[in-house]
Structure formats: structure tokens, C-alpha cells
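Case study.
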Amino acid sequence: MTDINLILILMIFGSIIAIETKDMLSSVVIVGVVGLFQSLAFLILKAPDLAIVQLVVEILSLVILLRVIIRKEESEPQPHHDYFPMLLGITLSALVLLFFFPIIHELPEFGHPIMRVAKEYIETGLGATGAPNLVSAIILDFRAYDTLGEAVVLFTAVCGALVVLRKTGRKKSGESETET
Amino acid sequence: MNKEPGMTLIVKTVTRLTVGIILLYGIYIVLHGHLSPGGGFAGGVIIALSFVHLMLAYGKDVALKKISMPVASMLESFGAILFISIAFLGFIGGYFFFHTLGKGEPFSLLSAYMVLLSNIAISLKVGCGLFLVLVSIALAGKEIKK
Amino acid sequence: MTYFLCMIVFAVGLYAVVAKRNLIKIIIGVMVMEYALNMLFVLFGYRLGGRSPILERYQEIKDIVDPIPQALILTAIVIGLATTALMVALAIRIYEKYGTFDITKIRKLRG
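After joint prediction, the assembly is written out as follows.
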């Protein structure tokens, strides 16, 4: 288990660097590297489906973030006047970590999961659906309602993004009208 | 700056060679979703990535000529309706999402017909939806540059 | 120990959402929180010395990693991409109207 701990420590360092640098381009690139580490960790945890999806989703979100950052000139930031948000952030993070300690004792030990529901899916998966890929059989046969919900959420998010980004034009007299 | 849209000559040549292979690879992952890792979501995102690759290298006019925006939104809605109608087919057997079409023999390409059809429907929906969002972000971002 | 390291990544993302002033840093913080949570769920289902849940021909079924968290997180990753795209669309609109990404200035200027 030392390789997963090593990857997690690298991810911690990467995310701390990504939110602290002043240069926007390098922080976006480091977030991309953190996503690639996550894909590598999924491969080590024996989940090849998730590794493929995480890799391509990371590339796409990098393209989206780079589109926002390039050619936006940013005025120079003011020095820190307020310490209140920083203290609030550190307090909330410490509270989250503190409340997680008793939960670890309730969970099963790492590496020995209780697979009460998964036992039936593994034993009858190939016979009931005819698909050797158990993850596809679960999301499209045994738990198809979740896939339906996910399709609805994706459709709604795409519609929302398209509505926000409609073209607006300004007339000379100062009033704006919208055109699709 | 460049007078013509898109990137340099090297990027355009490499794009012309590889964009068809990426699209074919995405379709392969969708169709073999029940035999090897992958499935509808991964294949759909890869298909969207191939069109985004074309748009980034050649400018958005060339990409919009291959698939225009009304066609893409119609394909996305068609994918969603196909998924719902596959679910309604289950009413023949007894309840919603019941798998009525047969199973075929395991480990071959044309088996588990429900899973195959659902993978194709989901890949259409995810691929076209993400391509639409990226084209809109690229179209909106160009207006800000003053 | 491994679970605790995952929660540290989540806490770093939470700090970025609460305490940063740049809008893009807030979006990056939400992305880091999503990475940590997806990793945590797959860690819950791991089995030491297990195999991936893809069956092969003529192989007996024993010692397979739990496939249910993988099936649920698969859709969660794609939904995370959709919410990132929506947040970036909103950020583009805010920049068009106010001319800056700083959240303390957005209240003061009137577009």
C-alpha cells in the first residue's frame, strides 16, 4: 500500500501548489497533473473503467479552463487587507479533519470490504445479463435508474450552460438586446 | 498575429492524420463496452474530443461545417429519447427497464443487446452535449478580446 | 491512514473555496474536492490482492474487487465535468459584465 500513499502525498503537494501560485497558467497545468495522478491511482486500485474516464475528462476540463484564462489581462492584485477569510478557511478545514477521526474506527479496515450486496451481483451477473464487464452490467442492468438520473443531470447542465452563453449585442443608444 | 485562423502548419498536418483515428477509437470503445473496460461514457467523451481537436487546430468554422449546431442539438435529443424508449420496451416483459431482448452467447460482440443499445444511446448524448458546450465557450470567449 | 490522506486533499480544496479571492481559484478548489471524494469511494471498495471486475473466459470467480462503488463513481466523474463547464460559463459572463475576476470588487462596481 505504499504506492497509493505516495500518490496521495504527491496529490496533496500538487493541490497546495495549485491554489497558492500567482500565475494562473501554471496553476491550471498543475491541476491537470493532479488529475493524471488520480487516473494512475485508479489503475493501481484495479478500476480500468474509471481510469479511462478520468483521463479523458481531465483533458477536456483542461481545455475548458485554458479557454477562460488565455488573453484575459488581470490587474495587479492588492495586498492582503483582510485576515478573516483565511482564518475561517483554516478553522473549517481543521473541523472537517477533526470530525473524520471517529468515523475511521467505524468503517471496515482498508482492504477487507463487506460485500453483502456485491456478492449477488458478482455471482449472477454473467448469467442474468450476458455481459462479462460487471461494471457495465451494473450501471445498465441492475441499477439503470441511476444512469437515467445521470442522463437528466447532464442534459440540464448542458442546457444551462448554453442559455448562459447566448450572444448579446449593444445598440448605440445604450440599451442591450439579446439575440440567439 | 496570424492572419488565418487556427494554428501552425505542423499542428494542422498532424491533426489531419490523427483526427480520424481518434474518432474510430471512440466508436470502438463504445461498441465493445460489454466486453472490455470503457462503455458509453468514455466513448462519448472521446468522440467529443475528436471534434474539439479539429476545432482547436483549424478554427471553429471548419469544425462547424462538419457538424453544425442545430444538427448537434438534434442528435443529443435523439440520444436521450432513444435511451428512454429502450427503457419503455421493458413494459413488454413486466416492469420498467426489464430486459426483454435476448442475451445471445456470452463473450461475443453481438451479445447482451440491451447493454449494447444503451451504450450507443448514451454515447450519442454525452458526445454531442459536450461538443455543444465547448463550441459555445469558444464562441463566447472570442468576443471578450478587445 | 490512507483515508486520512484523502481527507487532507478534501480539506485543501475546502480552504481554497472559502479563503481565496480569485474566481478561477475557487473553481479549482471545487475540482480538487471532487477528486478527493471520488478517490475516497473507490478506496472503500478495494480488496487486498483482488482482481478487476472484468470476467474472462474459463476463469473461476473469486477475489474480485467490489464493483458497486466503481459503477457509482463512473457517473459522478462525468457529472463533475458538466458542473465545471457550467461554472466556467458563469465566470465568462461575470468577466464580460464587470471586467475582473476579483470577488470583492464585483459588489462595488455597477455594470
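Observations recorded in class. Residues 94 and 101 of chain C are 8 Å apart (CA to CA). Chain C has one domain: 2-48+63-98. We will return to this complex in the next lecture.
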